[in-house]
Write a structure and sequence with these properties.
This protein has no helices and 39 strands. It is mainly β. The protein is rod-shaped, with a radius of gyration of 50 Å.
């Protein structure tokens, strides 16, 4: 008493069998039956997703099609890159070892084509393998063949869609950028200090069309005996690199490393290089030309000139003259300042690079010069690699390259044999005489000095006759007096 299962019904789309009564017309292909989604493709590449549409008209519907064949290379006898669609399964198959079919769908006006759909589009999504041969200047020509169950067929070639194949990837030189944490760029690279961290980035494209690969691709960066591998995503890659510890001029190069089968790296080897100059030595002051080494400086403006040695190139904008005035006894800093240095000439590297600046000591007044003070100078700055300026002759322990004494304002009293005079030289017992002593202050500051008059007898015994003090301006002569 059980009902027959899956026997169909009168409901729509639930029929067990459908028969069509019509004239057995032949299938047709329009002149634009073949089309790549996204427009014509003159070049095709491996690993890239492609999508094409084949428009077919069959007056008796898709169920009457016994053969639907899309040939991507119909003019190549060895491999026409044929794709076959089967009505029974709705799938596509290929015997070509160079094609990977991702999906295949026969579409009608409202989605999947029915068995009696007359106007259909076969949508194929595929990729080409890396083993696809490059035929050079020869172009492959697509064609479509359709045959119905009565043997009626239609074939059409599409010469306007001829295409070439290239598996050549390249890293365009103009996309490569070098990023520095320190140092400076040169025309074809950079100058850095040892162990400087850097970063290099760039792009990746198929060279014939500048198409960005739709798949991850490894790029190798070679520098200082190391290989830095990085994956390019959406055609963009970036990787950190580090300068070696030793100085030298080293090439930084890059190459495509994800190639298979017929793949080839078409990166321009002549331009795919950055020269990295690793410089571990800073600019070294060799000689202070002025002021003279033993000069005594006053509180005025002084021109400082120094010879530097730098073989890699000075960063002139960074050079500064640093000066300070210290108390000679305590070492306390009294005044300090810094001035930009100017390079004489245009050469940035050499054994004798003269730099100069003015050192203004006018803040040191005469009232301050009563204490003994010294002036010290150093040069701050760097070369194009980022190395700091050293001390004299490369000394890194003492960065002060010169020291001068400043004027020391103090009184200085002098006596000459003729400085002492008497009102009378010949005296008897009980006589008196007036004694006059000329004291000259040859120093640079007014001062006071004590004067002691003594008498000396024949036995050499001394007796203080008179004590006094003498005040004298700088450069003047004053007189001390006593009566005996």
């Amino acid at each position: 008493g059980y009902a027959l299962q899956d026997a169909g019904s009168a409901e729509e789309d639930d029929q067990l069998f459908i028969y069509q009564l019509a004239v057995d017309g032949e299938p047709t292909l329009d002149p634009d039956a073949f089309a790549w989604v996204g427009g014509r493709q003159s070049w095709l590449h491996p690993g890239q997703p492609y999508e094409l549409n084949a428009k077919i008209t069959e007056p008796n519907g898709g169920s009457d099609l016994s053969t639907v064949e899309v040939m991507l290379a119909s003019n190549q006898g060895s491999d026409s890159m044929s794709i076959l669609w089967a009505f029974e399964t709705g799938n596509c198959t290929t015997t070509s070892t160079h094609l990977i079919i991702e999906s295949c769908t026969m579409l009608g006006a409202n989605g999947l084509a029915g068995p009696f759909e007359k106007d259909m589009v076969l949508n194929i999504q595929l990729r080409f393998g890396w083993n696809t041969p490059d035929l050079g200047d020869n172009r492959r020509e697509p064609a479509i063949l359709v045959v119905d169950r009565a043997g009626q067929e239609e074939m059409r070639n599409f010469p306007e869609h001829r295409w070439r194949f290239s598996a050549g990837l390249a890293i365009p030189e103009e996309t490569v950028n070098l990023h520095l944490t320190r140092g400076s760029f040169l025309g074809d690279g950079a100058r850095v200090t040892p162990l400087t961290p850097m970063e290099i980035s760039g792009g990746l494209v198929f060279s014939e069309t500048s198409t960005v690969p739709a798949f991850p691709c490894q790029v190798d960066v070679l520098f200082a005996g190391q290989t830095y591998s990085v994956t390019a995503i959406d055609g963009i890659w970036s990787t950190p690199v580090q300068a070696p510890a030793s100085s030298g001029s080293l090439p930084l190069t890059w190459e495509v490393a994800c190639l298979e089968g017929q793949g080839v790296d078409l990166t321009d080897k002549e331009t795919s290089v950055r020269w990295i100059v690793v410089d571990g030595t800073g600019p070294a002051p060799m000689e202070v030309l002025s002021p003279r080494p033993l000069a005594v400086l006053d509180g005025e403006n002084h021109e400082v000139r120094v010879n530097l040695q730098e073989l890699g190139g000075l960063d002139v904008q960074s050079l500064e003259l640093v000066w300070l005035v210290e108390d000679y006894e305590t070492g306390d800093m009294i005044r300090s300042g810094r001035e930009p240095l100017t390079l004489k000439g245009e050469e940035l590297d050499g054994l004798q690079l003269e730099v100069y600046a003015d050192m203004n000591l006018s803040e040191i007044t005469d009232e301050m010069l009563i204490d003994r003070m010294v002036v010290k100078i150093a040069i701050e700055g760097r070369d194009l690699a980022g190395n700091a300026v050293t001390g004299l002759n490369g000394d890194t322990n003492n960065l002060y390259i010169a020291t001068w004494n400043m004027e020391w304002l103090q009184p200085k009293f002098e006596l000459t044999p003729s400085s002492l005079t008497y009102s009378r030289l010949l005296m008897d017992v009980g006589d008196t005489s007036s004694i006059q002593l000329e004291v000259e202050n040859t120093g640079t500051l007014a001062g006071t000095i004590g004067v002691v008059f003594e008498s000396v007898n024949m036995e050499g015994e001394r007796v203080v006759v008179h004590r006094t003090s003498v005040d004298a301006e700088a450069g003047s002569v004053e007189i001390g007096r006593a009566h005996v």
